[in-house]
Amino acid sequence: MGVLSALFLLVQTIQAAARPESFADLADEVSPAVVNITTSTVVAQGTGPGPIVPEGSPFEDFFREFQDRNRENGDRPRRSSALGSGFVISEDGYIVTNNHVIESADEIVIEFFTGEELEAKVIGTDPNTDIALLKVEAEKPLAFVPFGDSDTARVGDWVMAMGNPLGQGFSVSAGIVSQRGRALSGAYDDYIQTDAAINRGNSGGPLFNMDGEVIGVNTAILSPNGGSIGIGFSMASNVVVKVVDQLKQFGETRRGWLGVRIQDVTEDVAEAIGLEKVAGALVTDVPDGPAKDAGVQSGDVILSFDGQDVEDTRGLVRQVGNSEVGKTVRLVVFREGKTQTLKVTLGRREEAEGAIPAAQPGGEDDGGATEKDVLGMTLSQMTDELRGQLDLDASAEGLIVRDIDETSEAYEKGLRAGDLITEAGQQKVKVVADLEARIDEAKEAGRKSLLLLVRRAGDPRFVALSLEK
Q1: 205 lies in the same domain as 169
Q2: Mean pLDDT of all residues in the chain?
Q3: N or C: which end of the chain has fewer CB within 10 A?
């Protein structure tokens, strides 16, 4: 036998050893803890659209009589049902599922693998991660499954999904971890992508590793037709565990809150402010809150939070949200070419949500040219008339973009007529001369670009524009 043949056989042997012969033992082990969930909701009759019948159709009178009979019956309410999945996490009856499975439900019935049914009550929900915690009262200890460490799951690892797809009852599907760290729409998203079949009704069911530990809660699929095409998403267990612990303890989530608006650091932004590494979270606004009290400023780059490096905005949001309310943490920020360490006592995000951060007020007009073309933009200093036209706050100050060259870098990076430039080079600008001075200073310092703070409808963001022709 040649060397290549021997190597080929060795690879085949290794692959065969890594592939499980069967998932049957694992399925037998965990099935008693997986549940079907049936919810029912009372809805009013006649809330949906009526039948669409062409005018003059022979069926027109029939449907009119049908609707009249419904009105005579008083549009009596009817009960609507929905199906989902879940799993037991403790012998005393705590059950995890998706929030969207039980949302607005008047009645929740849990069906166990044995066929036994129990009514459940809602302990707490978290729409941000689509997780809900339920509780049933059983006469004897229930079989349950433990959570595993989702951070140890590797792309290519075998996984098994269980649930109630399409209302067919208990069902098992297997696949691998297709990818980690997927984000769909939420700030706290950390989804495991898998090709294990997930369909309607699987929502809220567990995704197991080969040790029988739950490493994800099956939540969503990507599909053009509503059926499984091998792209499913399970919320990572390390996110779920923190949520479940808070729901169990408080009946609600209590996430840390820093109180800043942030954006990712890009290469041109890093160059504009002299930051060596493209990392961290760039602060665009600091409303009243913990960060402002601690001295955080617009234009700071948050490099470290509570001893952990900050890679990007998504990472910072998760780090802060996973922190204890009221905890004092160290924040390392990059400001004016140097790092500073600040101490911040975190607030509670749920109490702060809905607050609209206010723009920082500027000072009085200090003269200079009223309108000029700079960096591909026609800029004008603020006037009361412009404030009224653009529906800006009376304290708003800065340079208004009156027009913009559509071939310019500024246009390419999203600036538009009506935008308000409030800072350049992390200093306030009120007249065109201020911006020109910042440009000259940046060139003298050897900078290739200038950082602008731009506001649109009150929302701030930083944009770096090249100073090289």
Answers
A1: yes
A2: 83
A3: C
* Annotated binding-site residue? 201: yes
55-59, 152-156, 370-374 — most confident range: 152-156
Per the annotation, the verdict on 309 as an active-site residue is no
Tell whether 417 and 329 lie within a shared domain: no
| 60-70 per-position pLDDT tens digit | 555 566 566 65
- Number of structural domains found in the chain: 4
Domain housing 314:
258-352
Residue 361: inside a domain: no
Q: Are residues 157 and 109 in the same domain?
A: no
Residue 18 belongs to some domain of the structure: no
The CATH number of the domain holding residue 326 is 2.30.42.10
Cβ atoms of residues 285 and 299 within 8 Å: no
**21 lies in a domain?**
no
- Flag whether the pTM goes above 0.85: no
239 lies in the same domain as 163: yes
Question: For 291-343, how does the pLDDT look when each residue is reduced to its tens digit (9 = 90+)?
Answer: 999 999 988 999 999 999 998 888 898 899 889 999 999 999 999 889 999 99
Domain boundary among 217, 234, 250: 250
Each residue of 73-115: pLDDT tens digit?
A: 555 666 667 789 999 999 999 999 999 999 888 899 999 998 9
Of residues 100, 223, 408, 466, which has the active-site annotation? 100
The least confident of 265-279, 312-326, 360-374 is 360-374
130 labelled as ligand-binding?
A: yes
> Above pLDDT 90, what percent of the chain?
40
Among the three residues 189, 217, 250, which one is the final residue of a domain in this structure?
250
Any idea what the CATH number is for the domain that residue 123 is in? Answer: 2.40.10.10
Question: Binding site annotation covers 56?
Answer: no
| Residue 19 in domain | no
* 14-29 pLDDT, tens digit each: 555 556 789 999 999 9
Instruction: Mark whether 413 and 348 lie in a shared domain.
Output: no
Same domain, yes or no: 326 and 420: no
Is there a catalytic annotation at residue 373?
no
> Is there a catalytic annotation at residue 104?
no
Residues 211, 287, single domain; the answer is: no
CB 407 within 8 A of CB 386: no
The active-site residue, picked from 85, 203, 228, 237, is 203
